[in-house]
Amino acid sequence: MSDLYNFISGGIPGGFFILIIALLIVNLTLLFFKSSKLLDPDKVLKKAIRFSILIVVIYIGFWFFLRPPLPQIRIIVLPGIGENKNMSLSADNFELPEKFQQIAFDNLTRRFIFHRWEWLFETIDDDSLQSPGIWKKTALSLKPGILIEPVKEGNQWKCLVHSRIENEEETQMFYVPAGFSEASVLNELNDEYDLFNDLYKLSLNFYTEVLQAKIEINRKRIDNALKIIEKDTSLAANLIKAEALVKKGLKVVIDREKAKYIEEKNEYFEKAKSLLHNLRRKRFEQYKVAYLLGRIAWREEDYNNADLYLKTALSFDPTNPRIHYGLSFLHYTRFQELGYKNRIELLEKAVYLDPGFRNAVYELANDYYRSGTGTQIGMGTNLAMKTIEDYLKISGGDGQILSLLGSIYIKIQKFDEALEVFTGLKERYPQDSNMVYNIGIVHYFKKDYKQALACFLKAIEMDGNLDSYLYAGIIYKETGDYDKALHYFRQRVRLKTGDDDKYAKEAMAGIRKVRELKNAGNSE
Fold this sequence. Notes:
Blueprint: H1 2-9, H2 16-35, H3 41-66, E1 73-77, H4 95-104, E2 112-115, H5 117-123, H6 132-141, E3 146-153, E4 156-165, E5 168-176, H7 182-193, H8 208-218, H9 222-228, H10 235-250, H11 256-259, H12 267-281, H13 286-299, H14 303-316, H15 321-327, H16 332-335, H17 343-353, H18 358-371, H19 379-394, H20 399-411, H21 415-428, H22 433-445, H23 449-463, H24 466-478, H25 482-494, H26 502-523
Parallel strand pairs: 1-2, 1-3
Antiparallel strand pairs: 3-4, 4-5
Helix pairs in contact: 2-3, 8-9, 8-10, 9-10, 10-12, 10-13, 12-13, 13-14, 14-15, 15-17, 17-18, 18-19, 18-20, 19-20, 20-21, 20-22, 21-22, 22-23, 23-24, 24-25, 24-26, 25-26
């Protein structure tokens, strides 16, 4: 029903309701004129029909003028499956997706969007990466218009092409000779679906070791990736080395207090920048180079260069959701010139381009919630919940998104639902103290202080969970054990992470309050 309403509404502000209201106003006005005898009753019906037709014609005109573009058709090429129905994460199995991806870049006709194999890697749980069934299930949940499924048969590949375009479903089969001669399968696909602007003027940069290194990076095995291409000095290999170094650099924990007084260089970023600036001078894969330089600049809080590099990357690669996501962390005035009014619009675009992009979904749902009233039935809450629900249909067991769902349940006072979410996560991640802490938070808001305190103390015992100190102090204060309250508040202050540590400030406020309570008790 909502799809029908959206279709009829097009891009008209107010949508179908504006048409209904306009028709009601005109016809009620004519009825008033008829009843007051200001118009000849015999002419009222004719005028009502004429005005109604005029309003509908005007509405249709606006509908055609303002309607949004049709959604693009998503193309997904799965990694190859061996004859034993298993899928090893080797370059051989990713050769067709990689070649298709290179040809598709900046070359697809406007109605198509190519879903890159690296994006699927991020969506699928690490433990399921070698399961062909999970790859296909995840791909299907993204509702592709064209899904290509390569299966090994002897020394050749059989490509099953499942298409659903304009509600017409069909499955075709193409055979690809050993070595993936792209001219064979891609020409046939292009003839069938008119995918590419120009299939014949393209040259592919394909190196087996470089592709294997890319796979290792996506498996989060950065050192393995660097080892594979250690002696390779080609431009393609240097780009992968730079990407690996950026990934390592992003893991470096920055001491913000120390950084105020002593400039510290991130050795991984410095090595990456050296490689990237050399690639930039040679104009190699400019969009990737600009994106990586933008990531480094943003992390180093060099926002002017982050703005410059990310916008450059976007100009080369406008369908990359990672670039939109990176831009969303800049001040809103920096991306208004791109046509985005606020951060939410940028994140919406990122999620549209890749509905399985966990980080963008997390930030978008969080921003939706914070932009609303914080109530169970508020628009912000509803949009946040829908965003999470849509993602969980793609990757149902994602711990980060489920944690966000549980947190929103707490904020809108659905404590039983929150407890169910966090209890399930604790069973999956028994060594994660944050899950125990979150269960404690649920009990705290339910005013079950005994259960809450047990959880907070358990989380502290597990790995010194920082914020559990604060809530343990709060509960001891509420129950009148001021000495223990002071102990836990002081511990939280001692472990503060920086000047902007909100919970450490709350612990300081707690210390002052407990001292006031103790002094008041002593004076009595």
